[in-house]
Amino acid sequence: MKFVPRSEATRNFIIETTAEVFNKKGYAGTSIADLEKITKLTKGSIYGNFENKEQVALAVFDYNLDRVHHKVKEGISKSSGYKAKILSYLTTYAGLQNTGGCPMQNTGVEADDTHEVLRERAAAGFMRWKEDLVSLINNGIAANEFKAGTEAEKIAVMFISLIEGGILMSRTTRNRAYFETVIGLAKDTIETICV
Which residues of the chain fall below pLDDT 70? Predict the structure, then answer.
């Protein structure tokens, strides 16, 4: 028998209300008691809208990732030129410091050996990010803003690694200067591919 949530509105409320705690505490660290406390709903209300905690976590991960992508697209749409679009894309992640960090990094690190479905979801998020950056770089090459022969995939992977490393170092040391250093390195790299 297929599970049918009792209320789409309540389901969305649970997702939105628990998004930050799942991002900060992770799947294993977030208990049903946490969900009850945050939502002020009973366990029965939560499980009336989700089959189990894993389903809540997956829905919340998707929600958190969609929020990041929405912010990124918003920043890109306000940017003129591919250099500015890429910088906007990268600096959007600076705001993730205030919401518990990057949902892909948090979920991927926690789930890499313990929760295959969440790991796959995080991996798909990283691949989507990489493809977005590759597309921006290739569009910049086509628009003659970036040098022909620029290896878009390598640059995209480097940017992601820089940003994720900067987020990790900044959050772990509680020193935002590391993230600012990474943004500086990303800007320097962009300058090397500009025409």
Answer: 1-5, 94-99
Rounded CA separation 53/44 (Å): 12
Half-sphere exposure of residue 116: CA atoms within 13 angstroms, side-chain side: 0
Q: Which backbone phi and psi does 146 adopt, to 5 degrees? A: -115, 155
What sign results for the dihedral spanned by CA atoms 66, 163, 165, 135?
positive
In angstroms, the Cα distances linking 183 to 7, 96, 137, 190 are: 43, 14, 17, 11
Query: Does residue 6 lie in a domain region?
Result: no
Our count of domains for the chain comes to 1
Within a domain: residue 17? no
The per-residue pLDDT for range 78-121, each reduced to its tens digit, is: 999 999 999 988 888 766 656 677 888 888 888 777 788 889 99
Instruction: Write the DSSP assignment of 107-133 as a string of letters.
Output: HHHHHTTT-HHHHHHHHHHHHHHHHHH
